[in-house]
From TrEMBL:
Domain of life of the source: Bacteria
Protein name (record): General secretion pathway protein GspM
Pfam families with a match to the protein in the record: T2SSM
GO BP: protein secretion by the type II secretion system
Organism: Roseateles aquatilis
Record's GO cellular component terms: type II protein secretion system complex
Length: 165
């Protein structure tokens, strides 16, 4: 005989010898342990997932909207009419002039370098938008630090002739 058969016979003998009240307690205990395992293994993880799902769906919807907006911007930039190098330089100089004395633009061939000293985030954001859309310039290298007076550092941009527009 194998050990499993022996154990089974011992269990059956003990079960038969147990009082009806002890059998009831054993059945209830097994049922409670079974319900606990069912909750821990199957129901609790599903419940947690259902509880978190609305927030996760909202987050994913926001990300999808951002990606769609970026795709629209990309499409608009691809369809934008190319500008000449002279137009690009003129647009960059005009945008830089709006930054005031805190910005200095240097143009060398197909690159433009902007040096900043204490420019606000809003002004810098506006300048970047104008540089990208009006001048069709693309950032090549950026080194900026945000301090109490605003952003300082430098940006190197490729002008349309170098960017392939």
């Amino acid at each position: 005989m194998n050990s499993f058969t022996t154990m089974r016979r011992d269990f059956e003998a003990r079960w038969s010898a147990a009082a009806p009240r002890e059998r009831l307690i054993a059945r209830l205990t097994v049922a409670l342990v079974g319900l606990l395992l069912l909750w821990l293994i199957a129901l609790a993880p599903a419940w947690t997932t259902l509880r978190r799902a609305p927030g996760e769906i909202d987050r994913l919807d926001r990300e999808l909207q951002q990606m769609r907006a970026m795709a629209q911007q990309t499409q608009a930039l691809r369809q934008a009419v190319p500008v000449s190098a002279e137009q690009s330089i003129t647009a960059l100089r005009a945008a830089t002039a709006r930054l005031g004395p805190a910005a200095e633009l240097t143009i060398a061939g197909t690159q433009a370098q902007l040096r900043l000293r204490g420019v606000s985030g809003a002004a810098l954001s506006s300048w970047i938008g104008e540089a990208r859309q009006g001048a069709r310039a693309r950032p090549q290298e950026v080194e900026l630090q945000n301090g109490p007076q605003g952003y300082s550092g430098r940006m190197t941009l490729l002008l349309p002739a170098a960017a392939g527009n």
